[in-house]
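Title: Request for sanity check on Palmitoyltransferase prediction

Description:
We are preparing a figure and want to confirm that the structure record we downloaded matches what your pipeline produces today. Could someone re-run it with the sequence below and paste the raw structure tokens into this thread? We only need the token string, no images.
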Amino acid sequence: GEKGIKRSCQTVLYWIPVIFITLIVAWSYYAYVVQLCIVVYLLAYHVVFILFTWAYWQTIFTKPMNPLKEFHLSYSDKELLEREDRGESQQEILRRIAKDLPIYTRTMSGAIRFCDRCQLVKPDRCHHCSVCDKCILKMDHHCPWVNNCVGFSNYKFFMLFLAYSLLYCIFITATDLQYFIKFWTNGLPDTQAKFHIMFLFFAASMFSVSLASLFVYHCWLVCKNRSTLEAVRAPAFRHGADKNGFSLGLSKNFRQVFGDEMRYWPFPVYSSLGDGCSFPTCLVNQDPEQPTSPGHNPPPNKT
Ligand SMILES: [Zn+2]
Ligand SMILES: [Zn+2]
């Protein structure tokens, strides 16, 4: 029907930024390897290129994680909730359900965070993405450049994608510089390569600037253990909003995203800690109403 056509059009549209980036990268490969072709640089170039495209691929094609079954309302709870039309009695039901879940965050007004669309009690740091139309665990943002939600399942890949794409651009800029200067001083033979060498330098240096700012910002977020959404609006706990609510110190914050094993840090393979539904917080003990059973959430002092 009409809705189906609209949806397929949207699906095609959403891939345009990814196709755009892929075409630029493919051209940059052609320009560097075939046209510029500085043999001594080619080995290092390919190492960076492979890491960059691998991380990009993983960020695009790793499915975002959705809340586990235990966060979804049971059939009887759904019926119960539907029958109540007052917000307060609905909250009563949700509070009862949330009691058995490892949840520490609340809405700004202190209510249980509930997704009407998915009919579930939102785990901590989980948000509903309007593009994916799903609740995404530790949602960071919906990224059009990868046509995917960046969240718990692929945040490490996204960080590596930023790091390696930046490295890729800096590498090209640095090694292309001398030929770029020769171009302006008319020291280059007038061939087709001239055009590619010039635009390679422009594109790589321009992307370097924008990627560097994004990368620095996300490094700061990792160090502070905040998602982009949490940086915009601090998560609220029972005692109120606290922008540092999930921060466990620099080393533990980094390990939550990159894992405990150093040998996995540079590669876009999954190594993040935790299950994405519950997160250790130093504020657990200030929340007497919530369970702290080891089955549900790790002890606050251990990651
Ligand atoms: Zn939802
Ligand atoms: Zn999304």
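Thanks, this matches our download. The first strand starts at residue 105 and ends at 106.
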